[in-house]
Amino acid sequence: MALEDMADTRRTAVAPAGDAARERIRDGAARAVVQSGPAVSMADIAALCGTSKALLHYHYADRAHLLADVVRRFASRIVARERAAIGAAGPGNAVDAHWQWVEAELRRGELRALLELATVRDDLVRDAVAAAAQARRASASATATLVFEQLGLIPRVPGILLGDTLVAFLDGLALDVDSDRDPRVSFDVLWLALLGLVEENRD
Length: 203
Prior knowledge:
Elements: H1 3-12, H2 19-36, H3 42-49, H4 53-59, H5 63-87, H6 94-108, H7 110-117, H8 123-150, E1 153-155, H9 159-175, H10 183-195, E2 198-200
Antiparallel strand pairs: 1-2
């Protein structure tokens, strides 16, 4: 499409309820990436959203801008769900609450899609992926710290390193969906190892 044609399209496209349309496009793009991977086309996204490519380009300059927005959406959802799951846990079920969140994320597929978007060769998407990684790292560190606090234990390693371990472990599970291994067994082994790196709370 020529630049002049694209400009005309943007001027004449009617964005239904503006923000609502953008939200619908972002949601549709997120579903498309989960279903088809990061190579999904704008035409595929438009079809899933039930809209036109012209409307996509009205809200997003190009595919890279849309995918970067999808990365941010995945990251914010994943982190919010983690915070909610761990925040609602009590001392007796902190590790189980973490597993329930992990299991739900593996079923949902957004984490795997987020990790696959890291393969997109575009600076906008890569920057968004890097920011998402930092947000997930901070969230996982908070999760590890809260779980240990709820168990009345003090880790002998910094929380950020525990968070990095949790992120790397979860990423491995998300990318290993075709394995016959039981992820719960791996999860339990991980937490047994982490809980071995503690000293009793002196309070």
